[in-house]
Amino acid sequence: MNTIFSAFPTPIPLQTRAEVFEQIFTIFLGLGTLVGIIVVSYTLYNAYKYRDSDAPTDDDELPTLGELPTGGKGGKKLFVSFGMSAIIVLGLVLWTYTWLIYVETGPEEPGEDALEVDVEGQAFSWSFEYENGVETSSNGEGLVVPEDTAIWVNVTSIDVWHAFGIPDQRVKADAIPGETDVTWFATEPLDESDGERVVNEDGIECFELCGPGHSGMTSNVTVMEEEAFEEWMAEQEAAMEDNSSGDNETDDGNGENATKVRGVTLNV
Known about the structure:
Number of strands: 13
Helix content: 25-40%
Shape: elongated
CATH class of the largest domain: Mainly Beta
Radius of gyration: 30 Å
Distance between the termini: 56 Å
Number of domains: 2
CATH superfamily of the largest domain: Cupredoxins -  blue copper proteins
Oligomer: single chain
């Protein structure tokens, strides 16, 4: 998705979606609290200032019934307050929109440092395939990813509609048969107290009611240190090669090895 904001660098090279939404929430909460305090304080001040008393006095600042209040000094105070409010609101909208564009498009297109994973949903499990052909599933180790990395996921389904989601990462993508929904998330660096891996049990959920096993359609998310992830991936590749070579060799029942070549069994 290309926008006018694509020409500008993102405020932070790599920031998780959860951090972005938390930052937006904090800013809105802080400004909302500040505005609320100002409005309530000003209302209480005017309620006290213009309170009813037994002895009315002549006061030019008292509002007159049927007349539009000017706010003093010919309406200058009112104009300045509305102008400042408009500037603050427009600035907040543009700032928020910039961050939402960042969430929508990701920190960058999938590159050498990013990891792409194909996610396939089916009743009632998830399967994950990496770029090198290594496959895992929700019935096994689940989704395994390195720390401090942008992860791009291509989500689809082979049966009915599902919805792939990682609540902790604020990630959700539709899994629709025949279509691919692309989304991303970023993992955080692990602390020394975390060790070489952190396992988020049932970190992946299905957010589309898809059948009787919908609530159990979950998977673990494991975040590893970079070196630990590379070792894990090397082990998976070796196991995949062993399984591939094992499929080509069988035993003919007489203790002889038989190699299948294009459906033809050759005794060796």
